[in-house]
Write the structure tokens for this entry.
Amino acid sequence: MNATLKPLLERTAGDLMTGEPLVLPQEMPLREAAQALLHLQVEGAPVVDARGKCVGVLSALDFVRLFDVKPHPKPVEHAAQPMTCRFQARLGKADGHDVTLCLLPPGVCPLQCREKNARGSDMLVCREPHAVLTDWQVVELEELPEVPVSHYMTGDPVLVDIDTPIQELAQKMVDAHIHRVVVVDAAERPIGIITGTDVLAAVAFARDE
């Protein structure tokens, strides 16, 4: 959310939005999209067609819906699994087993845990090195189907322009039962994202009018 001294009810989408959002091409494989969301630690992103027009939104909730209707596959034993986070590093142990180190600062990721290395010093380890973290559950990246994002995105997204008032933004979220809206330009290309948290923050920190 952009800093502003405007009275609350005079604020618009341009004041509240987070600019330069992650944008997912509709033909991008679902696994790559999940990895992009994970790397940027965001819960959702607009999906665009070849012209850059917003045609949908892919969010963590879409992954949950996917696993609600899809039987949980049996784990593949002894299969080589890739790391799914760029802040990971594999470390070989003296007993022949590998451990996945977390390179993030302590307390940043809920999947971190502390273990002792061979010298007795603390090290940060990832408890779920092959998982994509969402607000609702941990999704195994290897279980995601190799299909385009367009197959699982939420279509008919709620789009607003940069001058949309805060009251209208809140009403659209309530009416559509959604947690984010996409701010677009005249060609319906995404230029920002506004979440329910952005609206609540504006209310919480508004100056007395």
